[in-house]
Specification:
alpha+beta, two-stranded antiparallel ribbon, six-stranded antiparallel β-sheet, 10 helices, Phosphorylase Kinase, domain 1, Aminoglycoside 3'-phosphotransferase, Chain: A, domain 2, 42% helix, disordered N terminus, single chain, globular, 353 residues, 2 domains
Length: 353
């Protein structure tokens, strides 16, 4: 996350006097009055860096204003996950306090430690922040962090009730295929390959192993990297749940672009800059660290391309229907990304067991 502005008055979603009074009573690491610095990133959640007169710093986070989808922007879930993972080898911010009393500022919010570093969204950002030598360290740290997460027994860290343990992929397939069919009219776009892929993937889904905490959106855009290329903290745990770690791993692998990929969902992939490890190196390292049987990695990668296509299709439909402002949005580019995900899933389906 990066600082973009500081204002004494422009903190939408936060009643500053009320919040600062609550912080004074509940967060020992800060002493109001506070300077509020808006942070960019973390989806649309309203996230600020808080700095007190002694220079002590923390981060506050709440959902966006307005009507929200059920289970979206779940601050209590995020707080529970970073609290549970705090004592483990998984790097997360320190959880300070959670407020579920919506009378304070209209929504739940939580406070965590600030973790210095930067998330990487594009190759251009990489060129600006990381040396070529540092980029060589990113892949190992990135995949070792994910392997550490998938090695945590959720029951041992108080996260055993984070979600349902079985049938993760099957439930995801039904959810996202349902999204596709529901969005087809609004998107004015359908594709026979998606319907065929749903049938193929449903039939080919392997039996799930032990459930683990899955991040759900693990990528360099949700990792704070130090200037040495090491992962300092993993952010944005709002959709974390219990599920199949291999699905989580394959999502991360799909998002790790290689420079010579013939088809890309995003042409701005951070890892296409010179100096990064190749995708296969990450796959090999994960297998070495976890001992996981990756014989079905092709299925999991195909499943994730299918899921990505359905997600982008739903977003595209909401823009066309006017449910989200499309100002400044590259709608043709969004459609091309969706079609690229379908093509990659269709190619992967040729090798399904």
């Amino acid at each position: 996350m990066s600082a973009v502005s500081d204002s004494d008055t422009d903190t939408p979603g936060y009643d500053r006097p009320s919040v600062e009074a609550w912080l004074a009573a509940n967060v020992a690491v800060l002493a109001p009055p506070l300077e509020w610095v808006k942070l960019e990133g973390g989806h649309s959640n309203l996230t600020y860096l808080l700095v007190d007169a002694a220079g002590r710093r923390a981060v506050i986070r709440r959902p966006p204003q307005g009507e929200l989808l059920p289970k979206a922007h779940d601050m209590a879930r995020e707080f529970a996950v970073i609290s549970g993972l705090g004592p483990t080898p998984v790097p997360v911010a320190e959880a300070h306090a959670l407020c579920l009393d919506t009378s304070v500022t209209g929504a739940p919010f939580y406070v965590m430690s600030e973790v210095p570093g930067r998330a990487m969204y594009t190759a251009e950002a990489v060129e600006e922040y990381l040396s070529v030598e540092a980029r060589g360290n990113v892949g190992a740290s990135f995949i070792e962090t994910l392997a550490a997460l998938h090695s945590v027994d959720p029951d041992e860290v108080g996260l055993g009730d984070l979600g349902r343990r079985d049938g993760y992929v099957q439930r995801q397939l039904k959810t996202w295929y349902g999204s596709w069919t529901a969005s087809a009219a609004g998107a004015a776009y359908d594709d026979d390959r998606v319907h065929r892929l749903f049938t193929q993937l449903t039939a080919a889904a392997p039996e799930q192993g032990a459930a683990r905490v899955v991040h759900g959106d693990y990528g360099l855009h949700n990792c704070m990297l130090g200037p040495d290329g090491a992962v300092a903290a993993v952010l944005d745990w709002e959709i974390a749940t219990l599920g199949d770690p291999l699905a989580d791993f394959a999502y991360a692998v799909n998002g790790w672009g290689d420079p010579d990929d013939e088809v890309r969902i995003s042409h701005e992939s951070a890892t296409t800059a010179p100096g990064f490890a190749r995708r296969q190196a990450l796959i090999d390292r994960y297998a070495e660290l976890t001992g996981a049987d990756l014989s079905y990695i092709g299925f999991y990668r195909t499943f994730n391309y299918f899921k990505t296509a359905c997600i982008l299709h739903g977003v595209y439909a909401r823009y066309l229907e006017g449910k989200k402002s499309s100002e400044g949005i590259d709608l043709p580019g969004l459609k091309e990304r969706m079609q690229a995900a379908i093509l990659l899933a269709d190619q992967g389906a040729l090798d399904l067991k």
